[in-house]
Write a structure and sequence with these properties.
alpha/beta; 6 strands; binds nicotinate mononucleotide; nicotinate-nucleotide-dimethylbenzimidazole phosphoribosyltransferase activity; single chain; 352 residues; EC 2.4.2.21; binds 5,6-dimethylbenzimidazole; Nict_dMeBzImd_PRibTrfase_N
Length: 352
């Protein structure tokens, strides 16, 4: 399933970009004056195969998982908060519930690998538990390769289910106490960034806590150096990642294979993107970064990826909250492309 999904990811046709830009240039505005919205519109047109860009309906999958590395004291919060927040998501009480409702975006919560047993069945909850939490990546591999592939395939299945439900745009979201640690380790391993430069407070560590977190990540990178040197992206993800991160990486691969616009949320979701990109670089064609996470290492990650996030709102929550906000930007770009009058139709002098 993984190999066949990767094989289906296609580059976008550059001719569609030119056609889309020509249409934008014929609309009643100075050329290029809608800035990023024009570039978003062109990409959406290319994803729609040259047809009118579409965004809705959109869905966010908020994938939750627990992390053995929490035992090293790398988060301000105890692990049980992951499970408690999943229940909060299902009960509609979290920020992501408010923002998806406000943005008219569908939300599904995913148990990708939370501690404890199976959650009670609920229409908003998808059961994809690979195992009850990962192992401690600073002392051993977080996942076996088999577990990692299972999580990737769960993510592919989520993308396929969304597509089958008629969903056009997929957004990523996550919840997992301590998951900024595996996310940072993945950035270091995949993008060759030093831990000291990109490790931050996550949920709110102080300076001493961040120093300790850097030491834990450095230890993990040293332990897994032979795996990192071999550069097999699935083995790296298995060693350093998490179940929600691997599930989201699979979702990104699956969504790209179906030609769906992908909205990548903050710091941790971007690590899932980096893992997916290491498996298949063409996922870049389909990805939009919703917002600049306030986690301090995020700027260096975007620079390495030569990517620019759409929104700057000082957010660092995760859950998919930035993705929910960014759907409005995609929708606005698509509607401008479709609904604005051209110079000739409106009888406005085009300046040429
Ligand atoms: O997405 C972000 O930009 C982001 C930045 C910092 C923290 N978070 C959230 O906070 C949790 C991880 O933080 P930590 O300190 O426990 O590693 C996890 O549930 C994430 O959703 C999310
Ligand atoms: C309360 C809480 C909510 C969250 N949502 C995403 N990460 C989170 C971390 C905490 C601690």
């Amino acid at each position: 399933m993984l190999q066949s999904t990767i094989a289906k990811i296609r580059p976008l046709d550059r001719a569609f970009f030119q056609k889309a830009q020509a249409h934008l240039d014929s609309q009643t505005k100075p050329k290029g004056s809608l800035g990023v919205l024009e570039r978003v519109a062109c990409r959406l047109v290319a994803m729609a195969g040259g047809e009118a860009p579409r965004v809705d309906p959109a869905r966010i999958y908020t994938c939750a998982g627990d992390h053995g590395v929490a035992a090293q004291g790398v988060s301000l919060f105890p692990q049980e908060v992951t499970r408690q927040m999943v229940t909060n998501f299902v009960m509609n009480g979290a920020a992501i519930n408010v923002l998806t409702r406000t943005a008219d975006v569908d939300l599904k919560v995913v148990d990708a690998g939370c501690l404890g047993g199976r959650f009670p069945e609920h229409p908003a909850l998808v059961q994809c538990k690979v195992a009850p939490g990962t192992r401690d990546l600073s002392t051993e591999a977080a996942m076996s390769r088999e577990e990692c592939v299972r999580a990737l395939e769960n993510g592919i299945a989520l993308a396929k289910a969304a597509h089958a439900d008629g969903i056009v745009t997929l957004g990523t979201g996550e919840m997992g106490i301590a998951n900024t640690t595996p996310a940072t380790a993945l950035f270091c391993a995949c993008l060759d960034l030093p831990p000291a430069a990109i490790t931050g407070p996550g949920t709110g560590l102080g300076a001493e806590g961040v120093r300790h977190k850097i030491a834990v990540i450095e230890k993990a990178l040293a332990l897994h150096a032979p795996t990192i040197a071999k550069a097999d992206p699935i083995d790296i993800l298995a060693s350093l990642g998490g179940f929600e991160i691997a599930t989201l990486a699979g979702m990104i691969l699956g969504g790209a294979s179906l030609g769906m616009p992908l909205v990548i949320d903050g710091f941790i979701s971007s690590s899932a993107y980096v893992a997916a990109r290491a498996i298949c670089p063409l996922v870049a064609e389909y990805a939009f970064f919703s917002h600049a996470s306030a986690e301090p290492g995020f700027a260096a990650v975007m620079q390495r990826l030569e990517a620019a996030p759409l929104l700057h709102l000082d957010m660092r929550l995760g859950e998919g909250t930035g993705a929910a906000m960014a759907v409005f930007i995609l929708r606005s770009a698509a509607n401008l492309y479709t609904d604005m009058a051209t110079f000739s139709a409106a009888g406005v002098h085009s300046g040429e």
